[in-house]
Amino acid sequence: MATHDLHYGALPHPGVTPELRALIRTGRVFSLQQVMRPEMPQWAVQPAYCLTNVLPHDQSGSSLRRPVTGSFERIEHSGHSGTHMDALCHIGCWHDNQAWLHGQVPVRSVESEAGFQALGAELIPPIFLRGVLLDVPAALGVECVTDLYEITVADLQRCEARQNAALTPGCAVLIRTGFDRYWNDSAHYMAKGAGPGIEAARYLADRGAVLAGSDTANFEVLAFPDLPVHMLLLYERGIPIVENLRLAELAASGSSEFLFIALPIAYAGATGTSVHPVAIT
To answer: Is the peptide bond between 225 and the residue preceding it cis, with omega within 30 degrees of 0?
Structure first.
């Protein structure tokens, strides 16, 4: 059986329908990915991003015949570094004296030092969805929401009405808080993150969102150590989360609806994976 023959949580089989093609009006492509660098914001418990030049051009004569030269590097980072997608094995729920993953998969049966044998990042299919950008700061009349602002259902509905962009079943919802302005201020970006509360997250899921993302490090309003929104989306509803999106340019274009494409890297058994999302308007 091919890797992507099955649904992955709430995500549908990959495909580009006439309805999705109709979302492309100008043909303009927006990259929503942040550049990965050693100094980028990251949680302290995760391995730091590190790129090491392993073979410099000047030393490539041992494997290449001149005049050709070459180089390659070693890259180390967490699956949750930079713009990334949370796999469904990232968050579980403890009950009946053990941890469980989405679909009531017992963690003990699938987890090992080499990763997960179920719900890993390699099973996330290529993603082609109707994308909806909900610009919360614009709806509130500010450039960026306040630190630790909890986005409400009313905020999301205000965005939908203002932008004439209703959520529909099978869509990807990208929530702009304005926090990508702090990408180069790691302390602020990591410690003051805004995002939806549990009722707003439930609203997204109930309206049919199959993927959710934001321009913050944690998607939900910072809620350590409980993470109720992650629990709801990943564990209960099977909805992958994309974090650390770059949304300012897309918002400035005035585009609220677009073809959303994301191609996750197939890291076998990983709880998260690098992804380069784009919006085509």
So the answer is: yes
Sequence-distant (6+) residues with CB within 8 A of 31 are 246, 276, 277, 278
Q: Is 51 in the same domain as 126? A: no
Rounded CA separation 11/124 (Å):
8
Full DSSP string of 171-210: EEEEEE-SGGGGTT-HHHHHHS--EE-HHHHHHHHHTT-S
Q: Are residues 91 and 209 in the same domain?
A: yes
Dump pLDDT digits (tens) for 223-254.
788 999 999 999 999 999 999 999 999 999 99
Beta-bridge mates of residue 259: 130, 280
Determine the structural domain holding residue 273 and report its residue range: 18-35+82-280
Does the global pTM surpass 0.85? yes
- Considering only 1-5, 41-45, 52-56, 228-232, which range has the smallest mean pLDDT? 1-5
